Amino acid sequence: MKIQKTLSLALPLLALPLLAFVGRADKVTFQPEEGSSVSKELEFSATFYLDDMRMVVDGNEMPAEMMGGAMEEGLLIDMTVGVTDEYVKSGNNKVLELLRSYDELSMEAGPESQAENVDEFGKLEDTTVSFKWDEESGEYVKSFHESEGDVDLLENLEADMDFTALLPDGEVSEGDTWEVKGKKLGGVFLPGGMPGGADMDEPEAEEFEELFKEEMESQLQTAFEDFAIKCTYVGTRDEDDVAVGVIEFKFEGDMEIDLADLIQQVIELQAGEMDFSADIAATVAAEFEGEGLLLWNMKAGHMHSFEMSGDLMITGDIEGDIDAMGEAHSVELSIEASGELAYGMTTKGDE
């Protein structure tokens, strides 16, 4: 009896050293304090290179000099998005009401030696946009808050700039892994959506945008179905005197989309009343891979910083037989291009 009693007292003490080897579970969740604000700055840069291009018109291959200087230097895109987010209301791991002030919007694009400022990108600067979650539609209602602007510029905006798609579903311990697929990926590669847009003063440009959305959105969703980001929880650490959860991630995949219908409709749009017919075949394939790091502010419940880089390979093939104004022509075009992408986002305030 004494032995049994002694063992019952000793076993819990003997188990204490073993607890040191049990991994501690962490909650890495989106739970900002309602009414809190944080400033965010996103830096994005991309350079695309046309590695090879071949064009054949009516059976005759075009000489390289007729292609101009397309392959002599890369196409550069540099973008800065500075915002202040006020988390008015949140729940269920998403923001339910958000006020986003656009403090800085700038973009340069063009050949590396001649990149120019894209004025259209800055049209939302110095405005504040309200995002309110509508449970019935499953979408955010977007409007200008105590400011004015073109409502068409709100269409491509997204509320999430905290990369919540990369968060785990439940508690995680060091070394745990999970995958992110499907629609959630958009918030990783285009955080906050696109705050600028093309100048839609021309009816043809507006019609082209509608065509692009109708033809491409479903295809892109299908193409990304099997694409996945693999995440690993590394644990916690101190970063700039802030306790952060560390999520490393990698991605690798490919996709292919059919552009034939889109190109056909664009040609018909431009042809207008002209006597015209075309038979088009066009596909674009892409392969990309990359990696990144998300640091999550464990106390404030939002993103602390983010970085990601990737490489992209694109191949395109277009063949067409065109009959316009009684003249028949054939065109073949093939291209190979590569690109490098880099993202970085930092936060200030509410730490």
Could you provide a short overview of the structure?
The chain is an alpha+beta fold and 351 residues long. It is 16% helix and 50% strand.
State the separation between the terminal residues, measured CA to CA.
Answer: 57 Å
Strand content: over 45%
User: What is the radius of gyration?
Assistant: 26 Å
How many helices?
A: 4
Average pLDDT figure? 86
The rough form would be described as globular
* SSE pattern, N- to C-terminal: HEEEEEEEEHHEEHEEE
Structural class, by secondary structure, is alpha+beta
Low-confidence blocks of residues: 1-22
Query: Helicity, in percent?
Result: 10-25%
Number of domains: 1
Number of strands: 13
Descriptors for this entry?
351 residues; alpha+beta; 13-stranded antiparallel β-sheet; 4 helices; 13 strands; globular; disordered N terminus
Would you write up a description of this structure?
This protein is an alpha+beta fold. The chain has one domain. The chain is built from four helices and 13 strands.
